[in-house]
Amino acid sequence: MKHIKLFSMITVVMLVGILFSSATTVDAKKSAPTPGNPMIFVHGGSGSATQFESQAMRFTSNGYPHELIYALEYDSTFSINTVAQVYTAMDALIAKVQSETSAAKVDILGHSLGTTMMIGGMVGAVMTPGYLNTSAERNAKVGHYVNIDGRTATELPGTGVGVPIPTLALWSGWGFPGREIVGAWNVIVPNQTHVQTATSAESFVYMYEFFTGQAPATSDIVPEPPGQVRLAGRVVFFPQNVGVQNAILEVWRVDGDTGFRIDKKPEAVYSINGDGAWGPFKAKGGWYYEFVLFRDGAIPQHFYAESYHRSDYLIRLQTSDAISAYLDKSDHTTNLNIQRDKEIWGDQGIQNDSLEINGFEVIYPVPFTITKRVIGVFVFDQGALLPPPAFSDHVPDGVSHLGNTILPFYLQSFLTGVDLVIPGATPPDSTIPVVLTPRDGGGGTQVINVPNWASSGDAVSIRFRDYLQDINSWTDYVPNQAPGQE
Known about the structure:
eight-stranded mixed beta sheet, 24 strands, Immunoglobulin-like, alpha/beta, 9 helices, 3 domains, Rossmann fold
């Protein structure tokens, strides 16, 4: 059984909260309260634990041990599990959490379809009651519930079984007006969209106060000393969230300015089986890493992200055979999959995001309309404006068609496509700069540089943070630390 302790990070959080201020810091002079119950995040459609990745780091920045943070992941297409099986999986996870933490109760957070799983609604053509409306025995193990931009209700969850659950309901400012859960603490988060409401610093403040009764010391993600950063997660098939089997995952240190590897051998190698779990990997804060997935029947997949400054245990490396079949490939072009768990806006004028690849702006109004709620972008040289029936015969045409809707990606929730020619080579012979200027970042940029792997032999996935904050390294927070304090 794990013995959960408050780490000395609480002291660091309070120190930097007093010494430094930012737009997202909240009442940092208050003493950090003891962490509350363990929490379980339940994702929405096409989702995973990644929609809670930033919030988990905000909770640990405020004294929660990472061992208190869990996620229930399932197949949101319901092709390999039923709603009843999701409920059973929640029973098993709660029992596991109670065993590992000795906690009597857990707090649950549901987002989007995850709220349907928790408080009920239609799944396909079937009306489901919701986990929290099924039995008093189940609800006796739940302390709080957070409903994130999902189902409405005329009463608190669990009222019908005699055990109503205290509820916080967060609603995106861009959603339908008038939504509420009667009896809950209902909060509209202004000027935010559906996924952003789950991942934003503003939403975190409400979550933390609801769970603990106090404002957090900070809503920033506090950097750790570089030598303390640990990374862990799962390699899964999208969107089923099933672990990849019989695979190898390599972790390489790369040059952040070029994306190319620095060393001749990887920092770590993991055999991937079971639920796809890997790590924890002993990283170095501020360094850049490439994760490479090797699995039978697929080309190597290279994952790149911004540098890590705090331990992250909810990393999800997602792969998909079905999506790969729709991407035209060649020996001379590079394909990119770009993700950010905060919608990319392209039709909101001065509030738009900007995304430049090799210097080309790829965000246009129609593929990135705010109602499309884009968090995943597939960039490749498409052979024609409409895909032919035989995808295996579909080859790039060497011409970019920026601003067009690319099928089938445009028809899928949260996804879109971009037809852009990106020169590629085997082995890579140049760097592709990918520059994101977030709409609310005050002009600040997020940059990920990657090698131009040819799409015929290698796949490239890029993941941007869903936040941009002023202080992003340990030395930013504690600029005068003595040698060895890293």
